[in-house]
Amino acid sequence: MDGPHIQRLKQAGYRLTQARLTVLDVLESEHGHITSADVLERVESIKPAIGRASVFRTLDLFTQLGIIRPTYIDTSLTPTYVMMHGGHHHHVICTACKRFFEFDDCGMEALTRNLEETLDIRISGHLLEFYGVCADCLEPAAEETKAERL
Ligand SMILES: [Zn+2]
Ligand SMILES: [Zn+2]
Ligand SMILES: [Zn+2]
């Protein structure tokens, strides 16, 4: 059984090369977020024959096809790639501890339709990124117990 991402590649007319399949495996094993540096390192350890350039080309191709999107948390040097599930990806980032909180239900249908009509654009997906401070980071007591445990 092919997953949706493999079908997306086939539909767009791309061959399932070793590099494409390996990079996809690495991305999927992370359930969502992985930096380009970590993708490189993993691919090198599983299939050393796949060169860096072909890993980067594959990441660019997957981005074009809407399978992943790059996001930049702290630095523009190493993007963190997120997987797009059926065109959606949503999370809140705690700006203090940098944790991600994923959520499924985005309620974006009305806005999407509205944008398609007013801008005359066929929308294929969205990446929603919210920023905030999580309960652990807001709560000074929790911080103290955490410090004691260390
Ligand atoms: Zn959504
Ligand atoms: Zn996410
Ligand atoms: Zn936090």
Give a short synopsis of this structure.
By secondary structure, the chain is α+β, with helices and mostly antiparallel strands. Helices cover 46% and strands 19% of the residues. It contains seven helices and six strands.
Structure description:
The protein has 150 residues and is an alpha+beta fold. The protein folds into two domains: 84 residues, Arc Repressor Mutant, subunit A, CATH 1.10.10.10; 64 residues, 2-Layer Sandwich (Dna Ligase, domain 1). The chain is built from seven helices and six strands. The strands form two sheets. It has a three-stranded antiparallel β-sheet. Helix 2 crosses helix 3 and helix 3 crosses helix 4. The model has no long low-confidence stretch (mean pLDDT 90). The site of one zinc ion has 5 residues, from strand 4.
Annotated CATH homologous superfamily of the largest domain: Winged helix-like DNA-binding domain superfamily/Winged helix DNA-binding domain
CATH topology description of the largest domain: Arc Repressor Mutant, subunit A
Beta-strand proportion: 15-25%
Individual helix count: 7
Major β-sheet, in short? 3 strands, antiparallel
Q: Ions, cofactors, ligands: which are bound? A: zinc ion
Fraction of helical residues: 40-55%
Number of E strands: 6
* Mass-distribution shape: flat
Secondary structure class reads: alpha+beta
Low-confidence stretches: none
CATH architecture of the largest domain: Orthogonal Bundle
**Mean of all residue-level pLDDT scores:** 90
Span from first to last CA?
Answer: 46 Å
Rounded Rg: 18 Å
Name of the CATH class of the largest domain: Mainly Alpha
Count of domains: 2
